[in-house]
Amino acid sequence: MQPCPYSIEDVLYHAPPMILIDRVNAYDEETVISCVEITDESPFVDAGEVPAYVGIEYMAQSIAAYSGIKARNSGAPVKIGYLVSARNMTMACPGFKVGDRLEITVHLVYDETPMAVFDCTIRKDKALVAEARLNVYQP
User: Fold this and answer.
1) CA-CA distance, 25 to 8, in Å (whole number)?
2) What is the set of domains in the chain, with CATH numbers?
3) Is residue 11 helix, strand or coil?
4) What Cα–Cα distance (Å) separates residue 86 from each residue in 25, 57, 74, 123, 134?
5) Distances from the Cα of 132 to the Cαs of 3, 48, 59, in angstroms?
6) DSSP of 33-76, one letter per residue?
7) Burial zone of 72 (CB within 10 Å; 0-12 exposed, 13-18 middle, 19+ buried)
8) Rounded Cα distance, 71 and 13, in Å
9) CA–CA gap between residue 30 and residue 88 (Å, rounded)
10) Range 79-102 average pLDDT
11) Which residues pair with 95 in a beta bridge?
12) Chain centre distance of CA 101
């Protein structure tokens, strides 16, 4: 794993305020580890909490960062991608509270461009709080 030399804005096709992850902490050829700190200003905060189902978008944006890093490293532009489906998603908590620091890990399982499959996890204080297998498409 190596540190990411790019800002999150440089590797995502999204624009503020819909960039939901804060940064990529590390990456390699098959994995990205990103993070988000839940604050009062975080999108989707209601009564001091982001619903756990927003975690699927944290995972999807981490996959997008994986794709964006690969594009930037090869000199290509960052391209749009689409979440096609989620399988075996589990959430161990109802939401993420203001002050929570989440670590999102996405790992490439299968790449048959333009389709790919990633195993994804979200951890809070090293405890697993969500996981899923996401299928994505990048035209």
Assistant:
1) 10
2) 8-137 (3.10.129.10)
3) helix
4) 24, 11, 29, 18, 5
5) 24, 25, 9
6) EEEEE--TTSTT-BTTEEEGGGHHHHHHHHHHHHHHHHHHHTTP
7) middle
8) 11
9) 20
10) 96
11) 51
12) 14
What pTM was estimated for this model as a whole?
A: 0.96
Residue whose structure tokens are 């964006």: 68
Give the tens place of pLDDT for each residue, 114-134: 999 999 999 999 999 999 999
The rounded Cα 55 to chain-centroid distance in angstroms is 8
For Cα atoms 10, 15, 21, give the angle at the middle one, nearest 5 degrees: 70
Chain segment 13-65, per-residue pLDDT in tens? 999 899 999 999 999 999 999 999 999 999 999 999 999 999 999 999 999 99
